[in-house]
Amino acid sequence: MTAECCGYPISIFFIVVNEFCERFSYYGMRAVLVLYFRYFLLWDDDLATSIYHAFVALCYLTPILGAIIADSWLGKFKTIIYLSIVYAIGQVTMAISTIHDITDANRDGTPDNFTFHIALSMLGLILIALGTGGIKPCVAAFGGDQFQEHQSRQLNTFFSVFYLCINAGSLLSTLITPVLRAQECGIHTQQQCYPLAFGVPAVLMVISLVVFIAGSGMYVKTDPEGNIMWSVCKCIGFAIKNRFRHRSSSYPKREHWMDWANEKYDKLLIAQIKMVLKVLFLYIPLPMFWTLFDQKGSRWTLQATTMSGDFVSILISTVNPILILTLVPIMDRLIFPLIQKCGLNFSPLKRMTVGMLFAAMAFVSAALVQIEIDKTLPNFPSSSESQLKVVNTYSTTLNVTISPNEHLLIESFGVQLHTSKHTYSTISCMFVNGYTADLNITNLDSIEPSATTNYTLVNQGKRDFVLRHGEQWCEFSRKFGFGASYTFLIPSTVFSDDCESITEVEDMKPNSVHMALQIPQYFLITTGEVMFSVTGLQFSYSQAPKNMKSVLQAGWLCTNAVGNIIVLIVAELGKLPKQWAEYLLFASLLVAVSIIFSIMAYFYTYIDPAEIEAQVRKEQGLEPEEMEKETIEMEEKDEDQKNEQGVKQTKI
């Protein structure tokens, strides 16, 4: 008899807290991952996008492995424990990889050994993918195991609270971790605080593990009972092999190619697999939706870094989970019933098609925003060009001749041209010393006369710089706009006029397109997600036998993984010159895929799995009482015995 509180097993409270902490850990880390690639490891947009989507794809493939381990070997409890340890180690490893001081021997704020940080971060991400994917199919099912048959109402409430914890963890983490990243930290130099942004999710994962272990004495733990996916794969494999052996025209054709498994496998299992394959066939076009959807964590995040907006940047990072929590009940309780009352046949497959079109419109919106952003960007040199910056610190105008015949007229303390391509999603500044002696500037190295500092990244807003030479000093203040780049020319009279003679040259203007313009694309993609993802799972489960839900969930997760792999391929091989063109390419592909899917849906015939199963059982001569006890996992006919009761399957 398990201990209860308010009619609920006490053990589920540990599971709910565990899920909240784990989701906070995962989504918090993912919220700043592409920014870590871009601005810490200094990868370009395409490489950062590719690695991000490779990681997400791996996270959606490993649940299949986790389900097989739990059902066939360790059981759900041990699988959660062991893979959570792997998960926590991965998060800690990832957090350590973001500490720039580990390899910053010259203390300039930049790691000296990027190979070390890259290797450590890749190891961390692989461990995280194994952990988060491996426990994904186990935690919810393990929570369901804690309830007894008379607690069906409490079980439904548990799953509602469980889903709420997932969204709450996602919402809070995507709100908090970008704020943590914006802080400054470091042992020797102060930089954007990636260790804090990744460290907090690591701590939450450790807490998640500790909380789950703390309730171990109260859990109902079931033994592994076999995985239905393995039986399905063996049956399909035998049917293909048997059909190939009997490919000669002398053998009579059979109604369905799965009927070639009749010699060895139970007819009920074959009928169930036929129903599953019918749904899996409809999954073929679905990866393209995920190709677009998951780019809100990569391409759209990078797009936001080229825009302006302080509070809105926090809002944008949380808009998807907020809209999910808002739109799901609105769609279920208002929109769909209203459409039904109007006499329109808005079937699940039609909803999914419309969801795809909403996602395509989201990328058209993103393309329009990108076009506006591109209008504000400077003209950078191509890969075959370079630029030169000439600074005049002399007291009069100078005429500079650059071979062969280019003449530049530069006024005193003026600048001509720009030196090279600059990352426009940060703020940087450079000081040129026109003073007659060495100068010390706050947070910068000493500058010799007629020398310059390196471009230095600074945070948005007002910043103060103190210039010193011996006992002389003055303070210089400047308000920085996000995305801008400045050169400050220090004259020989800098101390006599209290830094007022410092000349500012704006190499690059601040970002001017506001982040609020991204809200329509987030609204459209989230509407598409509600109509596509939620409806798709509901449709899949209604069209397949109860014991095959894990197989369908595995197929659904594979569509997500393939979608992320498509992004990886396009990012590495596409190399379109303009980002807006890539957005339109993805939108066009999804429109084409949605047309194909709608044609497939038109010819699809909805079925009642329970009715088909009953008909097959009737043909086998089973009585109704025996039908209830029919085994979920069909063993091979030559085995000594079969199970008499249904086998519980892990929900992926």
Automatic annotation (TrEMBL):
It is found in: Membrane. GO terms for cellular component: apical plasma membrane. Keywords: Membrane, Peptide transport, Protein transport, Symport, Transmembrane, Transmembrane helix, Transport. It holds the Pfam family PTR2. Gene3D superfamilies: MFS general substrate transporter like domains. Residues 629-645 have a biased composition (Basic and acidic residues). It is a multi-pass membrane protein. CDD domains: MFS_SLC15A1 (cd17412). One of its GO terms (biological process) is oligopeptide transport. GO terms for molecular function: symporter activity. Residues 618-652 are annotated as: Disordered. This is Solute carrier family 15 member 1a. Its main location: membrane. It comes from Cyprinus carpio (Common carp).
